[in-house]
Amino acid sequence: MRADVLVVGGGLGGVAAALAAARAGRSVILTEEFDWLGGQLTSQAVPPDEHSWIEQFGATASYRALRNGIRDYYRRHYPLTERSRAWTDLNPGAGWVSRLCHEPRVAVAVLEGMLAPYRGSGRLTVLQPYRPVAVATDGDRVVGVTVAHRDRDEQIDLTAPYVLDATEAGDLLPLSGTEYVTGFESQAQTGEPSAPAEAQPMNMQAVSVCFAIDHVDGDHTIDRPAAYDFWRDYKPDFWGDRLLSWRSPHPRTLEIVERSFTPNPDDDPLTVNADQRLNPGDGNLWTFRRIAARRNFTGGSYGSDITLVNWPMIDYFEGPVIDVPNASWHLAKARELSLSVLYWLQTEAPRPDGGTGFPGLRLRGDVTGSRDGLAQAPYIRESRRIRAEYTVVEQDLSLAVRGAHGAVNYPDAVGVGMYRIDLHPSTGGDNYIDVGSCPFEIPLGALIPQRVENLLPAGKNIGTTHITNGSYRLHPVEWNVGEVAGLLADFCLARGESPRAVRSTPRLLADFQDRISSAGVELRWPAIAGY
């Protein structure tokens, strides 16, 4: 099969890339290995992690359309109370992590709706579930990608003038021989204050396998996981307690704190203020990432809130899942950990009344669309990252370094983002790294490999470091990166120029920035302070 643009990976970056290229009139092939498009928002079941100004600015117009579409879907199809229906900034789950906590299936429906006109016209072909297994190259160009069906013995050879890698782990980079990095860079390489003295390429952030639960009458305890005893007794050196406990390090201070857990608190959804500047929101784990607040819906519609478990205790940092021969083993262990956390919650977790266990907790695999009840896909925070023409480093955006100056203004800015430099515990035994950030820009140079000409990153695989990936890996930034990659492919096809030439030629760069601005991509921030 052949198209103008091939997008491998159907996460948020991949969908944004395919949508941008198709809207520009290009024929597009989009592949995805899981049952749902949307990646971290859907198959990984992670409610959107967003900055404090997301309702006003700091995202592309199409990302804003996605957010509005999710709210509109609830208003059209869900039995909201009149009060919640009138809530302009409706937060269906009233979770504290985000102003738009919602059930992942809703995002799937909205994303499919955004893509539907291009599928119907034949401009967009979606191959699902397929994953890349081989890449053909000719010198510094990718000339073909072979994808294999997940469930049967079938392969398809795909070609396109531009190939976009939107996979969760940068899978096309090793297959194509594109130069890339993994893990921690050294301070000598990057000059970053938080970097180690020596490079640690196999030291990567934890992965997490999320799951949804509610709390209803009855005993819904799952079978005891085979490895439960191991995880129940597991005590990382820096954790301050067993991993399966209410105690863990505070990400920003590293102080050992105890979190609460109160299923179905009778709180008012409209009083939740999900502002990461003021409160990280993880004090009560039930409301932290709640995705359905029953009081948003008419009486009896929901017997319980639904909350999404993406909590410290499900972080799996026993080993990396990238560039190791036993990656599948580690991913299986991560799923095992999540089931063990659920079993602990149901049977042994301390309750405020002095008892133990919450047997009324029920695994909601119907919400995540999976056979085993967990999220379809693991949440992989840290991808392989291209060796880029420009690599974003900590001192570009750190609030401690930049202060009142704000983040670096890049002449080749192609978007904006904002999130604290938020690194989870890593496979090298490191604790959280959580550093204040300034509202930052996305440089085009971070999307251009140093050598390969027609392969573009379209997700978390851009030119960041281990440290700055902590700010650039979040939902709106991934979408922005993917959208710009799709628009760049179209621009280069129209002009007969290379991505490298677009960045290095002032006239072309100005034209491209005008092009993406007209498509709703914000290039600069107003005068605001970071946190």
TrEMBL record:
Q: Where is the signal peptide?
A: none
Q: Which domain of life is it from?
A: Bacteria
Q: What name goes with this protein?
A: FAD-dependent oxidoreductase
**What molecular functions are annotated in GO for this chain?**
L-aspartate oxidase activity
Q: Gene3D superfamilies annotated for this entry?
A: FAD/NAD(P)-binding domain (3.50.50.60)
* GO biological process annotation, one example: NAD+ biosynthetic process
Q: What Pfam families does the annotation carry? A: FAD_oxidored
